[in-house]
Amino acid sequence: MENVLRPLIVVGGSVVLTLVIGWATDLLLRKADERHHDEPLWGLLRRARVPYQLVLCAALLRGSYDQAELLEEHRVGIGRTLTLVLIGSAAWLVIRIAGAVVETTYTRYANSRAHRDPARVRRVRTQVELIMRVVSAVVIVVAAASMLLTFPAMRAAGASLLASAGLLGIVAGVAAQSTLSNMFAGLQIAFGDMVRIGDTVVVDGEWGTVEEITLTFLTVRTWDERRITMPVSYFTSNPFENWSRGTPQMTGTVYFHLDHCAPMDAMREKLRDILRECPAWDGRAYNLVVTDTTPTTMEVRALVTAKDAGDIWTVRVEVREQLLRWLSEHHPYALPRINTAEAVPPPARHDGTSRPAFEKSRTGPT
Questions:
Q1: Distance of alpha carbon 245 from alpha carbon 123, whole angstroms
Q2: Rounded to whole angstroms, how far apart are CA atoms 37 and 118?
Q3: Among 22, 204, 262, 308, which has the minimal tally of Cβ within 10 Å of its Cβ?
Q4: pTM for the full model?
Q5: Backbone torsions φ then ψ of 292, nearest 5 degrees
């Protein structure tokens, strides 16, 4: 009977004590979160209650199991299992706590009145996410190594592993050359401020927004909701356009091919009226000039401005659509056309001689 009651008392007492301590801790965190609404730390720490309770339960079971002297024939296996659970749950808890602290620091920075620049906020966000990935990777590696060292065979082989670490490091470095280059490229992007989460970029002719940056790859969300994933080393070895670099304000152009008799003054007035009614125009500047001519048409460029890449696209399509509609309704002669009128013959020569036969055949009768 004692062999049955003792395990139940040990296990049940450990579980009940874990639940009581976990409930009390969660209650304190909830009250702290309600008292400090502008501080998200306490609410984020509540997400760690599951690994926290696992750490408590594993630690209590590990200690009480040794003292109770239960199941002597399975003592080593049960003790090692509890140790592995304790190490894993502790690593999980450390990652959750570190994430809560980092996220709170970023939120405080983003909400600070002294840091209202969206570019700086996106830069810090990129760095924070990459730092968290590095911290998580380090904690996981340390936890995995600690788990392996709980086995006597791994401890006995430690000397030989350390002796061959140099050769293994060289082999691993050669085998994982591309992976390591991407990891260093990810750190370079994060702290070199080359590209940030939320930046508008043009890569291989594709226009989109940077959605995710990791240590090995980067994801760009295009305007049509596609996701382009590429290694981060691409951005350190190839040129690309970053429209959000510096200030997000942008200048856009709209080109028209019109007839030479197009009313330029009226078009400038119409462009001004269109922009005044367009919410996406930031009011900084606009212009309409002739930039080139051909034998049949002339090239007209409309210049507009907006506060960011999304609004500049809206302004450009709005100007293009409304100006073309206005020309077709009020000045249809300004649109490109093919001239089918009879050619005007050149004047007679001053010496009184007639024109060559090929000129007569080309220009028609006089």
A1: 11
A2: 24
A3: 204
A4: 0.47
A5: -165, 160
